[in-house]
Amino acid sequence: MPPFRTALVTGANRGLGLAVAADLYARGHRVLLAARDAGAAAEAAGKLGERAVPLTLDVTDQASVDRALADAGAVDVLVNNAGVQLDWGEAPSTIALDRVRETLDVNLLGAWRMAQALLPGMVARGWGRVVNVSSGAASFAYGPAAQCPAYSASKTALNALTVMLAKETEGTGVLVNSVNPGLVRTRMRPDAPQTPEDAARRIADAATLPGDGPSGAFLRGDGTMPW
Q: What CATH number matches the domain at 6-224, 3.30.565.10, 3.90.550.10, 3.40.50.720, 3.40.50.150?
């Protein structure tokens, strides 16, 4: 691996995304910090240093993705961190499907859109890492969690996308994995025991796996967990 590669982190202006960007930066990478708000992206990048580049990017908008990536250069590492949880306490039998659609648009289709934009270049260059930030609520062994049905369904589908992309890119030098970071103390879960920095390390580890690392796995801590 060269001294550094270029990593793009979505939802990188705060919380877990910013912590992942900071970890990758500390490992020597050039980091693109993507966020919907230009000012927030610039403020976050300014906290890291000269190898940090702000990107104004909305993962739900193809035109926004195209504009942001037009001048970004080659991207070697994609961390699909942008996500929403809008349905805590809802029931799957009564939740408004518009809320489900909004959740899927960010958590699933946003990650899918980013992968479609960046995977071809990774494959062409023979090296790449894609990390989809998932959840224990996406595991059939532990969930899905009925108290957040849209979120659970979106992350379960994201795991399926991980497996499919890993199969598609097998043998190309590109590794695609999901990571369950556990409960993280962010705006989404202010009561969680784990700091963003603690959780970020595991995501950054997955983003910098060696060539013989796993692909198509659901990573948790130092190991894997069942789908």
A: 3.40.50.720
